[in-house]
Design brief:
Oligomer: single chain
Strand content: 15-25%
Strand order of the largest sheet: 1-2
Number of domains: 1
Largest sheet: 2 strands, antiparallel
Shape: elongated
Length: 32
């Protein structure tokens, strides 16, 4: 995702994974 954003000159701020019961922020987890 990050490489695609760099190619299109779009900064990656966060990536969210959503389920019906919870969510995960890759930025909060230190993955971005």
């Amino acid at each position: 995702i990050r490489e695609a954003g760099k190619f299109m000159e779009i900064p990656l701020i966060d990536h969210l994974i959503l389920t019906s019961e919870s969510f995960m922020s890759m930025a909060d987890e230190g993955l971005i």
